Amino acid sequence: MVPPGQILPPLLLLLLVVPCSPATPCPLQPNATRFVCTEPTLRTFPGGLPPTTLAVSVEFTSVTTLAPDALAGLPELQELHLASNLLAALPEELLWPVPALRVLDLTDNALAELPAGLFQRSELLQHLVLRGNRLRALQPAWFGRLARLRWLDVGANALAEVPPEVFRPLVSLHSLDLSHNRLESLDAGALAGLRELERLDLEGNRLRTLPPDAFAPVPALRLLFLQGNELQALPAGLFAPLSHLHVLDLAHNRLRALELPPRPPGPPLSLDISGNPWACECPLLELLRRAAPQLVAARGTLCASPPHRRGQEVATLSQAGDMGCQPDEDGQSLPDP
């Protein structure tokens, strides 16, 4: 309140009567090579980015749509990060003006599908993240031109199956994340063509079984995550092709028996078998005892049967030496009497 008779200075009066225009969120910088915006009030993908731009990060905003020409004029763009927006669809020609793109991150949007031709000019793409969307199916057309892709993450979607041969064009892929989907089974040809694959994550699906030759196409696999499924039994020889495996996570399934992958000389196998109803009969205990020098097993893994071993720790029993198991003529342990 201004005291009676007092006149406001002209500058202060101007500030009072002329509203301030809101600051433009994430202003552009001429000749910049990287544009970053995490302003929640941003609703429209910024235009007019300089042609020198190599990386664009528009994340945690309120952008809902992208125009087909949103990336026009950015011929050098190598990274596009669009995580945590409100995107429900993408135009098919969105990526066509940016053939140099190496990294695309679309984590945590609302994409239920992708256009068939979205990646038809993305032959240099190496890192593709589609995690946390609503994808219900994988389309072979997406991957036909992605021979250089090394990292693919389609976790936390609504995938119910992996079509046979769908990944065959991905001859350079090193990491595949299919975790936290709705997979109940895995087709025998689901991993066909992935000769270079080193990391496979199937955690948190609904897998009940696996085909005996499921991992035959991926002999270079080093890290395999199968925890949090509904596996009740593993086929004989399932892990036989995986002589390079360093980490195997089988925690929180319904397994009662185990077969280990081959162990050549080298680092021990990191194995998590916790949270399963193990049948601590002689075959399992003897297997773990023999593998002990090459095995790092999780503690807190308890026997569910037989009754006299229920609640005992599997690792302790397998290392105890005298388990009441009598070897037969071939050196194999006979069942408990």
Q: Approximately how much helix is present in the residues?
A: under 10%
CATH superfamily of one domain: Ribonuclease Inhibitor
What oligomeric state best describes the polypeptide chains here?
single chain
CATH topology of one domain: Leucine-rich repeat, LRR (right-handed beta-alpha superhelix)
Query: Poorly predicted ranges (pLDDT <50, ≥5 residues)?
Result: 7-22, 328-337
Radius of gyration: 28 Å
Distance between the termini: 96 Å
Derived from helix and strand composition plus strand pairing, the structural class reads mainly beta
The CATH top-level class label of one domain: Alpha Beta
Biggest β-sheet description: 12 strands, parallel
What pattern of helices and strands is seen along the backbone?
Answer: HEEEEEHEEEEEEEHEEH
Total of helices: 4
Write down the overall geometry: elongated
Pfam families: LRR_8 (PF13855)
Organism: Anser cygnoides
InterPro entries: Cys-rich_flank_reg_C (IPR000483), Leu-rich_rpt (IPR001611), Leu-rich_rpt_typical-subtyp (IPR003591), LRR_dom_sf (IPR032675)
Keywords: Leucine-rich repeat, Repeat, Signal
